[in-house]
UniProtKB/TrEMBL annotation:
Keywords, sorted A to Z: Dioxygenase, Iron, Metal-binding, Oxidoreductase
GO molecular function, one term: metal ion binding
Organism the protein comes from: Lotus japonicus
Pathway(s) per entry: Hormone biosynthesis; Plant hormone biosynthesis; gibberellin biosynthesis
Protein name according to UniProt: gibberellin 2beta-dioxygenase
Enzyme class, broadest EC rank: oxidoreductase
Enzyme Commission no: 1.14.11.13
Source taxon at top rank: Eukaryota
Length: 343
């Protein structure tokens, strides 16, 4: 059971907007499809995909394993923790004091790593790691397909210029299973005041792309370009795609990583699974050659994924980490710069 969080972790829920999330049918004709994917990445940095061809059985097997784990006793679950960052975590998110009303499992997608972690998680570690492995393979394939469509839609000469970042055997992708216990409305005075508990505070994902799926319980919200929070209706049969910070850089700011959060205002438990697609630690991230030109110079200083991760892990969840890597623009010149200019 997850104890309720302090009052500072609650947010008003009224300022939301009822517009549609882009839904993209992956079975449609390829050139129209790649255009739609690019448009959704530009407009929201977020979309839903249907006709994705991920076998239902692969998803339900991991969901089963997640349910099995989270229904264990606290003392059993804590044997798989604390999450530093991998393993079982409860309420603590990251290492800098962020908290949420959730518990989770965080796994590296390297088979040696998740096979080892599985030993502390499951009674049958082989079955657990097999479910994890099959899910990772499908999520990775879906992420590659989307990145190849993005490259085509952007008219980048090499169709694989983005997907190659997440295909390498040494890639640093991670898998997360979040579990948000239900809130008893009658006992929660804040619910009646039109406020909700924050399950997972607002942030953008640092990686290239996130492939997300949840059970039929809502809670996820995305921030629209005009700054409103848009609730996302859950759809257990489909996947949601989020642009991460690294893809914002690779497209030189043409795509913007989507800020999102999860609220626990439901009567039922929400369980979500996220595959965060990332490159190997020593790979450099900077705009694709086509995205940065003399007329449209790079907005970001080049960095390795390891450098970006280090920055992310040294900051709070809601911080805009990309600011640290922005190239100073002329109009950004501070008053200090002006005063110290030689005459
Ligand atoms: C507070 C933090 C948790 C996080 C690492 C960080 O310092 C900032 C980024 C957070 C985030 C958000 C997306 C993913 O859930 C995550 C695994 C990631 O890569 O970056 C988490 C990190 C985490 O929970 O360890
Ligand atoms: O659980 C969710 O719905 C969202 C969680 C999330 O954004 C994350 O784990 O990065
Ligand atoms: Fe996220």
């Amino acid at each position: 059971m997850v104890a309720p969080s302090p009052t500072s972790m609650r947010v008003r829920t009224r300022k939301t907007k009822a517009v549609g999330i882009p839904t993209i049918d992956l079975s449609m004709e390829r050139s129209e499809l790649s255009e739609q994917v690019v448009r959704a990445c530009e407009e929201y940095g977020f979309f839903k995909v249907v006709n994705h061809n991920v076998p239902r059985e692969v998803v339900s097997r991991l969901e089963e394993k997640g349910t099995e784990f989270f229904s264990k006793s606290t003392s059993e679950k804590t044997q798989a923790g604390p999450a530093t960052p991998f393993g079982y975590g409860c309420r603590n998110i990251g290492l800098n004091g962020d908290m949420g009303d959730l518990e989770y499992l965080l796994l590296h997608t390297n088979p040696l790593s998740f096979t080892e972690t599985s030993k502390t998680i499951a009674n049958d570690p082989t079955k657990f790691s097999c479910a994890v492995s099959d899910y990772i393979e499908e999520a990775k394939e879906l992420a590659c397909k989307i990145l190849e469509l993005v490259a085509e839609g952007l008219w980048v000469p090499d169709k694989f210029s983005l997907s190659k970042f997440i295909k390498d055997v040494d890639c640093d992708s991670v898998l997360r299973i979040n579990h948000y216990p239900p809130v008893n409305k009658n006992q929660d005075q804040y619910e009646q005041l039109d406020q909700a508990r924050v399950g997972f505070g607002e942030h953008s994902d640092p990686q290239i792309l996130t492939i997300m799926r949840s059970n039929n319980v809502g809670g996820l919200q995305i921030e629209t370009p005009d700054g409103l929070w848009l609730p996302v209706s859950p759809d257990p049969n489909e996947f949601f795609v989020m642009v991460g910070d690294a893809l914002q850089v690779l497209t030189n700011g043409r795509f913007v990583s989507v800020r999102h959060r999860a609220l626990t205002n439901a009567a039922e438990a929400r369980m979500s699974m996220m595959y965060f697609a990332a490159p190997p630690l020593n790979w450099w991230i900077s705009p694709l050659p086509k995205m940065a030109t003399p007329h449209n110079p790079s907005l970001y200083k080049p960095f390795t994924w390891a450098q970006y991760k280090q920055a992310a892990y040294s900051l709070r969840l809601g911080d805009t980490r990309l600011d640290l890597f922005k190239v100073q623009q002329k109009e950004d010149t501070s008053i200090v710069d002006i005063l110290v200019q030689p005459k």
